[in-house]
Design goal:
Radius of gyration: 16 Å
Number of helices: 5
Order of helices and strands: EEHHHEEEHEHEE
Largest sheet: 8 strands, mixed
Strand content: 25-35%
Distance between the termini: 30 Å
Strand order of the largest sheet: 1-2-3-4-5-6-8-7
Structural class: alpha+beta
Amino acid sequence: MSSLFVPFPYLETQRLRLRPLRTSDWEAVLALRGNHESMRFIPRHMITDKASALTMIEMIQQKIDDGTGINWVITEKEDDEMLGIIGHYRMKPEHFRSEIGYMLLPKAQGKGFAAEAIVAILAYGFEQLHLHSVEAVIDPNNEASIRLIEKLGFVKEAHYIENEYFNGRFWDALVYSLLKRNFKPIV
């Protein structure tokens, strides 16, 4: 698995380029993971300083090096500025399954970038990683993400009630799944 992402797979769509996360992206990582609006539905600690942003970047790179996960930075083709992060997490090669996750800076939301990037990494997952299914775990209150995932053909598999404890409260989680045979590579 350790050579799975070597060389790093750059992906392109009609408008976007998906590239590796760099240490020079730390300010954008801080803006994304330190933004209350961006983190509203994500039960993870906010990043509040440069050192934490760099630690996150190192953690992401380690997963790529280990072949246990992959993240891309979402940029527009004509601009290298980070708009968000997307990737395959919790990869289970023995089950031909992974979980996808994605976050966009508020200025990049509502423009169809998330759908375009998701389709690109799904195609990569099904074609290059030979996945059979991909899941997305979503907060039930994140209506925009639910609409997006359903639009792309994901089907709700489960609603876990208060299954995760974070920051003094229990969080619910919806699990959506897409089988390779149901994937339509067009947004």
